[in-house]
Design brief:
316 residues; Rossmann fold; binds ribose-5-phosphate; alpha/beta
Amino acid sequence: MFSKLKLFTGNANPELAKEVASFAGVPLGDAEVFKFSNDDTFVKINDNVRGTDAFIIQSTCNPVNDSMMELLIMIDALKRASAQRISVVIPYYGYARSDKKDQPRVPITAKLVADLITVAGADRVITVDLHADQIQGFFNIPVDHLFSIPIFVRYIKSMGIEEERLVVVSPDSGGANRARALAKRLNCSLAIGDKRRTGNDDNAEVLNVIGDVKGKIAILFDDIIDTGGSMIKIASKLEELGAERIFAACVHGVLSGNAAERLENSPIEKLFITNTIPLTTKNRNCKKINQLSIAELLATAIKKIHLEESISILFR
Ligand code: R5P
């Protein structure tokens, strides 16, 4: 077993890191992570970490490249300070959507990021709802891939809607397995949108919905809501097809640009997201956004990994 558990964070999502530390019952370690005026990132670990089991909690969210560099430099600092094992907790894995070469001369940035993290010196990765499961295989170190579905299930069940009135809707066929897993746990039906991208990634078109949504309470489910385009287009389609109420649940609330305004003007009643990414002030003020915490899930995983216990219970 590893001697001492140490938790650190950069500047990507310190609120989540504090919450995780509080659930884990371990104080956040003292690390200075800042930029010099020339834009170089600097890290100094002020605690003795020699021989420790160190965890860095850092989403690679906006500003994505700064968050990434902070993570890499923190790994390097801990390695050079003789931490015994370095685990990186990346609740939101930036660049995950660049996971395949689906056009000529494009990169697979999710793989490049995995290589950078490994070369920097990480021994293990803990992450939540990867855009594609196969990103786990981009790493040659262990990856613990956690799922936020139990958090959404608990919340949706607390809304007290009869199972037979609910339908979980995936915006596209790529998210069908994820939506099916939620529908199974909610014991309700499933529908799938036929979403097509026209041109760049910000333009989604929903041609049809496979499954019965008329008179139903729909829960749209996706891993990421970014510009909101996909969710809002399918919500409008569901409204047209006679869905009675429309909610949306997304693991990672990227919510870039004017996503909040678009959401306000959409048929979506409420959007449930987790706190893998912190909310900007504008997004925090959006009355339709309801953030659910994944801190306890991460803290439980960290403690179990530290104690070398199985984490399979977290997937049930
Ligand atoms: C794509 O395959 C993802 O699962 C999301 O559907 C997508 O990234 C959401 O992006 P946006 O909100 O910009 O439509």
